[in-house]
Amino acid sequence: MSAETIKYAMRGLLNPLAQLLVAMEISPAVITAAGLVLSALAALLFGLGAFVGAGIVLVLSGLADMLDGMVARSSGKAGTLGAVVDSVSDRYADALVLFGIFYFYAFGGGTAGVGEGAGAETRPAVAAYLALAAIVGSFMVSYVRARAEGLGLECKIGLLERPWRMVILIVGAFLGSGVMAVLLWPLAILTHFTAMQRVLEVKKQVALRSGGAAGHGSAPAGGWGAGTGGAARGGRAAHASGEGSDPAAEGGSRAWTIVEDEPRPESKKYGGLFVTLEGIEGSGKSTQLSLVADTLKEKGLDVVVTREPGGTAVGESIRELLLESEDASIAPEAELLLYLASRAQHVREIITPALASGAVVLCDRYSDATVAYQAGGRGLSRDSIREMNALGTGGLKPDLTILLDLPEDEGLARAGGRGRGPDRMEREEEGFHRDVRRAYLDIAQSEPDRVRTIDATGSPEEISEMIVSMIQEARG
What we know:
The chain is α/β, with parallel strands linked by helices. It is built from 15 helices and 7 strands. It is elongated and about 75 Å long.
């Protein structure tokens, strides 16, 4: 079972509580602060040897850590500052808890339950050193991911991600100091192992990116220390020569590289506003497109409504092949390329001209759908898909993405009640749609400034009002 599976299962259990907190207008920052206070309390209890009490408080702290993000996304309050504060809070929480355990074994008489016999007196000291090693290892696991994402690389893999580390600590707390002393061995060793796993994953992604760009005369992306300053993030193909160029492109050579998540979306240069609606099957995108478009038009805005796959003659032909075909044997790679072909035509024929005219473009699905369905659902490489998306769209990213989220079983039930037969995607197993939803939530978590998550189980009118408000905020 992966860490993402644990988080996904817990989100489902905690969603009613998260919605209650949203209704009570509890700020995500308050929940983050509460989680950090609980972690500090757990650390104090560990230091005093009250392991069971520490375990109970640690469970509450973990729940708070999940709820702050869920509340932020559901209330539309997710943002870069909140994500940074939450991440920093998590690092402090990890360090505090492990320091409490270190203190117990180093100074708090941590011999209880450790065992008798030769060498028993040295075991608390060993456990204390292991706790310190785990502090460093936990920090490095998070640091490697943050450093990689700062360079536009995705790095979420690893044997011992944070949810598993929390599970180990909670189990050790409830089973006592003797068991905790044993569990500190895998915790200390595997945190450092996970950090090295992530370093190797970054190396692999850099090699793939460098190889993919070699035909364009790109700089060697695999050089140590390269790309730290000039790799501005923004999901577009960026010319790296001249002012502001990547240091790796020294020597005057021209270099092209794919960069991601630039703070200023690419569509801004066209003058319009690019808004996409995403979600699993039956999430209500089509309904919201109609309601939101009507409201915006009433406000005097020029609105273009379109969809993917489709939107153009070429795109609609591809849509029929992808969704309406009775032949379910399309290879995942062929499916991906068909979606990308439709998008490339769509961007150049419909979206870009509409943005250039100053219109608000409302699009039913875009590049996030490809990441969710073809990477999350089909298991294709997420990084390869993002690079291909950047190539096919010229780097055009939405200014605002609305993720309509609801449980996959409810979405499929809605889709089944439309009075028509299911399309090729709707005929997939429920596990496929579960993976797609999980991928969507991961995207929302990684790009909180652009992607706003809305609980799609609410009334269409309430959801429409929220979307219109978000669009008006994005327009400034």
